[in-house]
Design goal:
By secondary structure, this protein is an alpha+beta fold. Helix content is 45%, strand content 22%. It has 3 domains: 145 residues, Jelly Rolls, CATH 2.60.120; 41 residues; 57 residues, no CATH class. The strands form 3 sheets. It has a 6-stranded antiparallel β-sheet with strand order 1-2-9-4-7-10, sandwiched between helices.
């Protein structure tokens, strides 16, 4: 397996909307890759080839928040850039709430974004740093003023900090039902489901780290009641148990995390 993976930080004025750029170039045996649920929307622009999903083949795409793994089929060669967008990024770049993209993947051109120009710029650039600079330029040009309901934004922040749905509802003065409805309208997932996704993401990050803890340690640190609960939640969100996922994909993930990193 030959893996090149370079991480870059977006321009400071983009960081409320994009958390990071990830450039990748991978040669391996043909197979599948799981796009795992997280708190980020996924924007991908390929330099070569396409991203092949059940929904179709895309040279440039945006995927919304989801609570099931997205299965990506590849022929052994993958080359492109992934941008992790915050939910507010959907409003900033495309003028719509993240909820309208939930559980789906669309071609970037359907969002009135200059997909062709962006791909051409990435193909013309000769270094990852140059490619990230081109992303800064094009995404910066797309920026528009954004406005979000204060209570819904607060609910996201508190959920990320580990608060329960009941605690958040009491803090904003809404019923749990009203909170769930408003939250889902903005993000596409209810706060209860999003909390599961955030917990899953924390566990996933722990397993990707250089010092890999035991599964028992991960389950306890992330608030799973026991190992059986950990396995059930992972199978629901990932389509595999933690052990099965590590055997199938962790060599690729570890290799990518250990490769060169560009931050500026």
């Amino acid at each position: 397996m030959d893996v090149e993976h370079v991480v870059g930080a977006p321009h400071p004025r983009l960081r409320p909307f994009v958390t990071r750029y990830s450039g990748y170039r991978l040669r391996s045996e043909p197979g599948i890759h799981r796009g795992l649920p997280s708190r980020s929307l996924t924007l991908v622009v390929t330099v070569d080839g396409t991203v092949d999903l059940d929904q179709g083949r895309f040279a440039a795409l945006c995927g919304g928040l989801h609570d099931e793994a997205v299965i990506i089929t590849h022929d052994g060669f993958q080359h492109g850039v992934q941008c992790d967008l915050t939910p507010l990024g959907a409003r900033a770049f495309f003028g719509l709430p993240a909820g309208e993209l939930a559980a789906t993947t669309v071609g970037l051109d359907t969002l009135d974004a200059p997909a062709g120009e962006l791909r051409e710029r990435l193909q013309t650039a000769t270094t990852w740093r140059d490619r990230f600079a081109q992303l800064d330029l094009v995404l910066g040009r797309l920026l528009r003023p954004v406005k979000q309901q204060v209570e819904v934004a607060w609910a996201w922040q508190r959920l990320a900090a580990g608060a329960t749905v009941g605690e958040i509802a009491a803090e904003v003065g809404w019923s749990r039902q009203h909170l769930s409805a408003r939250f889902a309208a903005e993000y596409g997932l209810t706060p209860k489901v999003m909390g599961r996704v955030m917990r899953f993401e924390r566990a996933n990050r722990m397993l990707r780290g250089q010092r890999r803890p035991t599964l028992t340690e991960v389950a306890a640190a992330c608030g799973y009641t026991d190992q059986a609960h950990f396995n059930r939640d992972w199978r629901a969100l990932c389509g595999a148990t933690p052990t099965e996922w590590m055997a199938a994909e962790l060599p690729f993930v570890q290799g990518s995390e250990a490769s060169g990193v560009a931050e500026w």
